[in-house]
Amino acid sequence: MIPVAFDYKRASSAEEAIALLAEYGDEAKLLAGGHSLLPLMKLRLAAPSVLIDVGRLTDLSYVRDAGDHLAIGALTRHRDVEISDLLQAQQPLLAAAAAEVGDNQVRHRGTIGGSVAHADPASDLPATLLALDATFVAKGPNGERAIPASQFFTGFLESALQPDELLTEIRVPKAPGSGFGFQKFNRRAQDWAIVGCAVTRSASGTGVALVNMGATPLRATAVEQALAGGASAADAAQLADQGTEPSADLNASAEYRRHLARVLVRRALEAAGA
Amino acid sequence: MKVTVEVNGTSQSHDVEPRTLLVHFLREHCGLTGTNIGCDTSSCGACTIHVNGESVKSCTMLAVQADGQQVTTIEGLAKGDELHPMQQAFHENHALQCGYCTPGMIMAACSLLDEIPNPTEQDVRLGLEGNLCRCTGYHNIVKAVLAAAEGAGK
Description:
The complex is a heterodimer. Chain A has 3 domains: 7-53, 2-Layer Sandwich (Uridine Diphospho-n-acetylenolpyruvylglucosamine Reductase, domain 2); 58-173, Uridine Diphospho-n-acetylenolpyruvylglucosamine Reductase, domain 3, CATH 3.30.465; 179-272, Enolase-like, domain 1, CATH 3.30.390. Helices cover 31% and strands 25% of the residues of chain A. Chain A is built from 11 helices and 14 strands. Chain B is of the alpha+beta class. Chain B folds into 2 domains: 2-75, Beta-grasp domain (Ubiquitin-like (UB roll), Roll), CATH 3.10.20; 85-152, DNA polymerase, domain 1, CATH 1.10.150. Chain B contains 5 helices and 5 strands. Chain B has a 5-stranded mixed sheet, with helices on both faces. The A-B interface holds A 1-8, 10, 31, 34-35, 38-39, 42, 51, 53, 55, 79, 102-106, 108-109, 188-191 and B 1, 17-21, 24, 40-43, 45, 48, 51, 54-57, 60-62, 64-65, 108, 111-112, 115, 127, 129-132.
């Protein structure tokens, strides 16, 4: 399978990428690791006329202690998130979730920023970052802005990123010693989750988010509220599908997805020590 | 556009369309047909090669993304008539049946041992989860990778 022909532009800096976006508008797509975009282009579900390759912006590949939070460059590969000592110590849920993305080969290419910008509700990291109350930093012609995860995912494969903006950084809170759980139900390693869930648990409360239970990654707010009110993990997990609108496809009916959400949330809460 | 890749230690320069996939660059422009195309959807791992020493699926990478990088394919492992230890281990442990997945399996396994030099059986099974064997010959594949790891540790 071969993508539709396109013009290829290689950006040598974030500024050049933003200038190229301004020049080509929404005809262009940014290419990072390519593990969300290229499969779509090969199936001809996406056919951008210009690809702007940001994959060589190595200065956007980092995991840093930024004082009151951790900063992760958008071009950081899943593999580097997975094995980051800093993340394993200070934000273990994110490292654990990155280790569940695709397989080794996929994690050697795919990037955290690419996954976030693609905004697939079935991907592991968008829901994980939603559970963590992450902040996404976007750069455009008018400068930089920070977008809370709760306002970022606006629809199926749609985000608050504007066509002229480049996602540059992901910020997550420090949570050393936090409990966490990540559950994913799928048939093969490289499949998207049929349903998944991410749980983070610290002194300030429990965050629970769902993978593939609607058009966007979703917070399981009913579960979080029940836990805050003193419910057991098993009882709270029974509310996991409240407010969700799971789709039906050849892998699962909507009702089966609701069942999976309740089971997986219970398992993730138990793993997190709730 | 001109794409130059160091393939198995040799510089390969070819004029290709930007949409050319790396696997097609290797097979059709470099004439290296050891890398197989299986599913063509980054599921099966048959097209696994190394880019800068790490396993990737060459059906899900553009040739232009490998411009200026180092690529190793299955053809680059043996030294003349001497098989690479992983190839030798696959041979000795009968880790191939039809052989279609074998080049990708071996490339993925070499990359895995670089990251986990002394893997457990579970490490190997998890580490090769991105490679499918249509003969379902996983048992001997895992045995071969463990044997290669043990051999390298001697």
